[in-house]
Each structure stands twice: as structure tokens, then as C-alpha cells.
Description:
By secondary structure, the protein is α/β, with parallel strands linked by helices. It has six helices and six strands, in the order H-E-H-H-E-E-E-E-E-H-H-H. It has a single domain (3-147), classed as 3-Layer(aba) Sandwich (Mannitol-specific EII, Chain A).
Amino acid sequence: MQISHLISESCVVPNLVGDSKKDVLLRLSAVFANVLPNASTRHILELFEEREKLGTTGIGNGIAIPHGRIKGLKNPVAVFGRSIAGVPFDANDGEPVHIIVALLSPDGSGREHLGALSIISQLLNNSSKRNKLLKATDKKSLYSAVVKGD
């Protein structure tokens, strides 16, 4: 699996705005609801909020990877959001989050879900790549930076 299998250009939000974790999760949930048939923003937000109750998905270095599983999905799908200002996300390092990749996988998927999380983590683990993602000027260049080297 490659990152381009998870994220399409329509699922990139270059100027994610929100003052809280809930704000940005709501906005990312709305993107999912627009691209997934029979999915509601509210249901997706609830999935992410339930996962956050288990522990923050803000992993540090300005990154968060909220994730969950949903019925009716055939393959994992992700939404990439970038917050220029940064969002308080209860990250492990206490710093604001600038890059958020939200992932939804089919209900019951184990290995596929973990594989998708691994791909996202590998993408964001590279500091040079993170800098390119932060410096991209628009949606098209941001998407290109996400999938380059796929």
C-alpha cells in the first residue's frame, strides 16, 4: 500500500482552521463525509472522539494521527490537514499540532489498519518531508509533497 492509495487530492486541507482538537476533528470529519457514501460528519467525529478518550493521537513533532474504524468502508482512506497556526492537541510533547492525518479503515480490519498507520507514520517521521509539507503554498503543491516518492 502507498500513501496515494489512502489520500486523494480532494482529501487535502491546506489551511485547516480550528482553535481546539474538537474543531479540527469536526472539519476533517466533514471532509470524510463529503467523500464517503453513507457517512455522516457526526458519526465520524464520534469515532475520533472515542479514540481520543483512550489516549491522544498527537504523537509529537507537530503531528497527530487520529484514526478509527467504520462499517461500510472497503479500503482505508485518509484526510490530510495542515494548520499553519497550530492546534492544541494534547500531543505527547505538549507542542501544538500542524500536520494532522486522519485515518478511517474498514470495521474489523486489523492488519490493513495497522499497515495504513505505518505508512502515515513513515511519511511523517522524516523531518525534511515534514518541512516540505509545512512550506507548500497551496492544495496542489501540498498534495504533491504528500505523495512524492510514493
